[in-house]
Amino acid sequence: GAVVSQHPSWVICKSGTSVKIECRSLDFQATTMFWYRQFPKQSLMLMATSNEGSKATYEQGVEKDKFLINHASLTLSTLTVTSAHPEDSSFYICSARDGPQETQYFGPGTRLLVL
Amino acid sequence: QKEVEQNSGPLSVPEGAIASLNCTYSDRVSQSFFWYRQYSGKSPELIMSIYSNGDKEDGRFTAQLNKASQYVSLLIRDSQPSDSATYLCAVNTQAGTALIFGKGTTLSVSS
């Protein structure tokens, strides 16, 4: 099956710093990738849709200036959490869509802790 | 508002039993349907996809789709403790958009 990787898997940072998370589709090209956030014992929350070569589409309530998304190639999308604060601590998961069947494959996730 | 509904559970079954997970969706034109499994602290993992009415079997898993009733289910035969997880139903309602996920059903299989 299709494989999606994320890096890093864990990150601890100080409040006010920026953190970049990479999402890669390893064995397929993904014109569209998605970024989710999940708090403990809560549902997946879609943050934004990332399309290769164009601006990301953010869900209502997600600050686009705080969560910068770049989808520079068909296999790489990045999420940068700018000026991170403790309330941004969460589990960030990307997914990539493979083909016309609209199947989404998830990366293993990045756990962010902001101190 | 396009919605996907699941019973949150927990659904508890003994080892070896059949677990039945259900999902309904609101958008009648939905075309693609998926079941994901999510272990605690991990990301979702695709189990099954189904696109046409009827049953689709893969090992111990069977997905069932009834578009007239807007209903999709997942049966797990010979349930094992390792099947204990949250199962997410996801529906694609429009090409090019993100899947719409249900909130998930927590399954607990006791040995």
Can you tell me about this structure?
- The complex is a heterodimer of chains A (115) and B (111).
- Chain A has strands at residues 4-7, 10-13, 19-25, 32-38, 45-51, 57-58, 67-73, 76-81, 90-98, 103-106, 110-114.
- With 115 residues, chain A is mainly β.
- In chain A, strands 2, 4, 5, 6, 9, 10 and 11 form a seven-stranded mixed β-sheet that branches.
- In chain A, strand 9 and strand 10 (103-106) form a beta hairpin.
- Chain A starts with a strand and ends with a strand.
- The model of chain A has no long low-confidence stretch (mean pLDDT 94).
- Chain B is built from no helices and eleven strands.
- Helix content of chain B is 0%, strand content 54%.
- In chain B, strands 2, 4, 5, 9, 10 and 11 form a six-stranded mixed β-sheet that branches.
- Chain B is mainly beta and 111 residues long.
- The A-B interface holds A 1, 32, 34, 43-44, 46, 49, 91, 93, 100-109 and B 31-32, 34, 36, 41-46, 49, 51, 88, 90, 92, 95-99, 101, 103-104.
What are the low-pLDDT stretches of chain A, counting only 5+ consecutive residues below 50?
none
Beta-strand level of the residues of chain A, as a percent range? over 45%
- Major β-sheet profile of chain B: 6 strands, mixed
Order of secondary-structure elements of chain B = EEEEEEEEEEE
Q: Tell me the Rg of chain B in angstroms.
A: 13 Å
Give the quaternary arrangement of the chains: heterodimer
Termini separation of chain B comes to: 40 Å
